[in-house]
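Moderator note: this is an archived Q&A kept for reference. The question asked for a predicted structure of one protein chain; the sequence and the answer are reproduced below.
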Amino acid sequence: MDTTEFASSDFSGLEGSILFKQNYMSIANIVINQGGTSSGKTYAIEQVLFSLACANEKLVITVVGQDIPNLKAGALRDALNIYYSSAAIQAMVKSFNKTDRVFEFHNGTIIEFKSYENGQDAKSGKRDYLFVNEANGVDWSIYTELALRTRKKVFIDYNPNAAFWVHDNLIGKPGVQLIISDHRHNPFLPQQVRDKIEDLRGVDIERWRVYARGLTGKIAGLVLSNWHVCEYVPEDAKLLAAGLDFGFSNDETGCILVYKQNGELWIDEVLYETGLTNPDISKRLTAATISKSTEIVADSAEPKSIEELKRLGWYITGAKKGADSVKNSIDILRRYRLNVTRQSVNLRNELASYKWKTDRSGKTINEPVDSSNHLIDPLRYVALNKLGANKLNKTKSWLPQVNASVYDFAKMHLLN
């Protein structure tokens, strides 16, 4: 980013909120605005864009939305409000083309409002600043093509109804700033609107979290809503076991490591891949620096695979399935706070969509949908064997392997 542009752009024709200042003064390459309803994030970002346009010559600023109707109802409407409420901005703007949705300034700068069909379509044109409005409605492929062709800075905003590509691919990366806001950051909002937003708490706590506090929500009807993202597993957490689910052609082979500390579980994704044979699985586990002394709890419906991995030197046992084992394992997991590492992208995606089944009338039944659970199932296996009320303390039994190396996975993982 060219910091001199910001330092020199002292445009005083706007009355801004704290979000305006946060976005305007940010030195990050990508500024993400996650916010609840009526936080004023879109308005604040567009105030920044108008300030930049007035203070700098020959910029190209692109505002992108899911489609033109959404832009017209949201970002473009806010832009017109900013324009018509400021005589100073009107004096700087040469024209506004309603058909093409382009503000042209006397200094040669333009602000354009566009949408794109796909990533290929987004390859056309370059710009200095990009604003992706309501980004959860814009495909990742479109964003990547636009960002590659943006010279200076990217602004992003959205209501966090559920996690999407921003959470998976951007938040936490170098050069990315996350700003979380809600209606309390908007000084221009009438009190009756604030009251209406806060009233959601008594109706639907999940919607209140999203719209009143700007926190990332989860799909309704989720089986496990007690999970949270963490950056890493604590160094002193105790490794309970690895969980393993077998797959091949259509289903992924999934493996996780489950730790326990202070009454909470910590989970780290190790493997999520199709087309793996048992020798392949063995190689992947070794590459992940998992010790062969680490207990692996696997799908007991695959005794042949369990035996083959055992003969390859792994300490592996079958999950204690039985009547109501799915329900029982879920009940066990719901007793704990589940801390899932940020790098466990596939597990996070599964947890965000792991729902209860519904009957024909739409009523929820006490059985989860059996799909997208190739990392959740091994988590359940560990819960059954290591956290169940009647767990047995069996003697370790696995075939010895000459010159087998033993690694302290927890320490090595944190060092890498």
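Archived answer notes: Residues 227-415 form a domain with the Nucleotidyltransferase; domain 5 fold (CATH 3.30.420.280).
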